Predict the structure.
Amino acid sequence: MRVKIRDIIFESPLLTASGTYGYGHEVQNLVKVNEWGGIITKSVTRHPREGNPPPRIVETSSGMLNSIGLANLGVDKYCQEIIPFLNELKTQVIINIAGSAIEDYLETLEILETADGKHVGYEINISCPNVKKGGMEFGVSADMTERLTAEMRSRTDRLLIMKLGPNVTCIEEIAQAAESEGADAVSAINTVVGMTIDIQTQKPTLFTNFGGLSGPAIKPIAIANVHKIAKVVHIPIIGIGGISTIEDVIEFLLAGASLVQIGTMNYQNPDLGPQLANELSKYLNNNGIEDLSDLIGKVKYHSN
Amino acid sequence: MMYHEMVRVSFNDEIAAGIFKTTFKSSLISSISLPGQFINILPEPNWIQVMRRPMSIASQGNDEISIIYKAIGDGTHIMARWEKGEIVDIIGPLGNYWNGYKETFPILIGGGVGIAPILNLHNLLKKKEINHIMIMGARNGKEHFLQHDPKEQIYMSTDDGSLGINGNVVDAIQSIFLNNILPDNAKIYSCGPPLMMEAVRNYSLENNLACDLALETIMACGIGICQGCTVEKKLDKLADHSYRNRFALACMDGPIFSVKDITSCG
């Protein structure tokens, strides 16, 4: 069940999705954080962010819309308060970085690089739909993705993973832009832009009108995007989007993902990752599959 | 400390019109729960929705924990149909708890979905022999399951006057304490539907009364991760860059807030 991205080994292909597991310390009493293949921490930004006014979340059919607005304590406090905790973990830690301008991303990265952290990489959120003049502008443009990836690549030897979103015309071009400038992997997908309206008040349910849809409702969109990317890049893909069962994990692997992240369903079951890791190992045994690579990208097309 | 526990339903019945009480056999969560805290419930395995349902604890102890809730949505309708013996997946106890009642004369006000934490506090105060009154509001008498018992300082109010005091819970306070003369150190503890809470909040502000409210917000994780259950705090000035300053989380910083700290009941 081990998977590698470049030279970094993950004991299982199941990782937490950023923003759905906090920094790991919130749940340490409740679950076995170290039984995940890795944890990807909630987005950190150059400065603390209060986030958006309420309502920030709403439940939808088999999913939820959120517009948290990247509420986080900022990179300086992150280095003081969070990194010491993360350094104690036995699982691989990847720090998710967000920003609203290229300088924000770079400064945040530079500060994290000087911190005494054991984290193995960075996931760069260039596709958050909930921030004004936000990361989305990077994520929708191949040129900006290329520039940001190159700038970040020149500043770190740790894993560099660009997180892509589905709210674009051509996700393949953006994935290729990341690959061409030295990203070690891409993760996909971030949330899908959505909106709900309260028919009693006739107001949007979320304060910010639009939010990001996640959960099982978006899984087919995620599978399609992962597969599109898999057809054009050679770097590993980390699949994200509505995973709640072992069948979902297998589906992402067949579509071309080498690893997956569990997101929204952590809220329902914080033990889901370790549970699915056990089920994956059983699935591989029961089906005589020796290596995950026998599944990755092995979707069989209809012959005609 | 919190637990993820599989608990067995030992009682589940409709105790008033549309209002259900469920008791679970719970050795872990019941052992550390305090009145005012809540649990986050998965209504059924493999549930099609993504969010658990947060429910305030109505009683705890002796390896049992109970909740009282209105069956109004998809989750609570499933819960209302739980059979005795059914195994349910819950996380808890979560959030803060009722506090600071020792030096006060507590006026407890509950209604609708807010009955559970108020009843829990009432039983706690009784046990601690702290003199207090309890007012429960409802639209009509059928929604009440407690007796209107002024001798015991337990008052029911109904919007239609069919049981107890005619009117809402603020009308009830005013008819109990004539001319608004309240006991020294009176402090309100309240939980209920948003409109009721807003009325209680206004009453406490107008009369300069201390008041703690247990708020209900939409909630995904219940453990401080999703940052979705935001409550806006009253601040004199806002720092340029801040985090959990203007916005508190109902699951971690609440669900109980002092009226002086918040801008509305959500």
User: Anything to note?
Assistant: The interface with chain A takes residues 1-4, 42, 47-52, 89, 91, 217-218, 220-221, 223-232, 238, 241-247, 266 of chain B (CB under 8 Å). The two ends of chain B are 27 Å apart (CA to CA). Chain B has a mean pLDDT of 92. The CA atoms of residues 95 and 251 of chain B lie 5 Å apart.
